[in-house]
Amino acid sequence: MNELENKRKKLEKILEEMGNVAVAFSGGVDSALLLAVAARLYHVKLMAVTATSISYAEHEKNDAQRFAQRMGVKHRYLEFDQMSISEFVANGPERCYYCKKAIFSAIRTFAEEEGFTNVVDGSNADDLQTYRPGTKAMTELGIRSPLQEAGLTKAEIRKLSREMGLFTASKPSYSCLASRIQYGEPITPEKLARVEQAEDFLANLGFTHIRVRSYGTLARIEVEPSQVTLMAQVNTRNKIIAKLTELGYNYVTLDLAGFRSGSMDMGIAKNQRNC
Whole-prediction pTM value? Predict the structure, then answer.
């Protein structure tokens, strides 16, 4: 038995020992694998809970619904008002802590009302190396991360997803739309909608792993490094400038370094990265 198979078996054992599991399900690569593995364990009571909010993109909601239906899993939506969280709106470096604390508190309460004593999320082993203040909130609430406990990395999760025939296997990584707005700049529904529309436009042009980082009226676009040259071509560039200007950006820039997950966090002091 190879290392990846050992990790899969460990994941199954963790879930089986829980007995009942409410998966905080975003529809992304990680939580999709977690849900798919749990769905194959006949003795595990299972439910998927998708928290919908102003920073949760519509295409992610659609993917979550489609995936849960394919798995035949009980799936519930939980509407959440992020704009009611003052720390979320203020958008400081600890924004994610306050947001996760509120959302996962609501998920836990909902799960308990449905008869579930265990709430899990899709954090993986790679997430331990990045700045994720939301992890602290989930630890405080007793939310477990079985993929992380099993030692599964993003690359391994994608490999297992391919082996299981999941359509999420090659899905680009995605994150909360609020992560696109520079720290210290208040979050508004209009700014989140503008980012979502800009990214949807770029996706429709064929670009992948897209981020439109927002700094007031300046947009910094990140795409796969291999696609930077394509984006810089005159015709494509002009289409992008026209669309993003229409959306309200006065300056449209292309990041030559390409897509980097968490690039907004690069200026945060190292002693905060253990949050």
Answer: 0.90
Determine contact, residues 32/67, Cβ cutoff 8 Å. yes
Q: For 7-14, which contacts have Cβ atoms below 8 Å and span 24 or more sequence positions? A: 7/150, 7/151, 7/152, 7/156, 8/37, 8/150, 8/160, 10/149, 10/150, 10/151, 11/37, 11/146, 11/147, 11/149, 11/150, 11/152, 12/37, 12/41, 14/144, 14/146, 14/149, 14/150
With tokens 């990395």, the residue in question is: 153
- What amino acid occupies position 101? K
Q: What is the pLDDT of residues 108-131, one digit of tens each?
A: 999 999 999 999 999 999 988 877
The CA-based angle 249-250-253, given to 5 degrees, is 80
Q: Which residues contact 23 (CB under 8 A, 6 or more apart)?
A: 31, 34, 35, 38, 46, 47, 48, 49, 120, 121, 122
Do 26 and 63 touch, CB atoms closer than 8 A?
Answer: no
Tell me how far apart the alpha carbons of residues 110 and 118 are, in angstroms, rounded to a whole number. Answer: 11
Phi/psi class of residue 232: alpha, beta or left (left: φ > 0; alpha: ψ in -120 to 50)? Answer: alpha
Q: What is the chain's percent helix, strand, coil content, to nearest 5?
A: 50, 15, 35
How far does CA 83 lie from the centroid of its chain?
18
The packing angle between helices 29-39 and 58-71, to 10°, is 20
Range with lowest mean pLDDT among 14-18, 46-50, 155-159, 168-172: 168-172
Rg from Cα positions in the chain: 19
CB-based contact 41:12 (threshold 8 Å):
yes
In the DSSP assignment, the letter for residue 181 is B
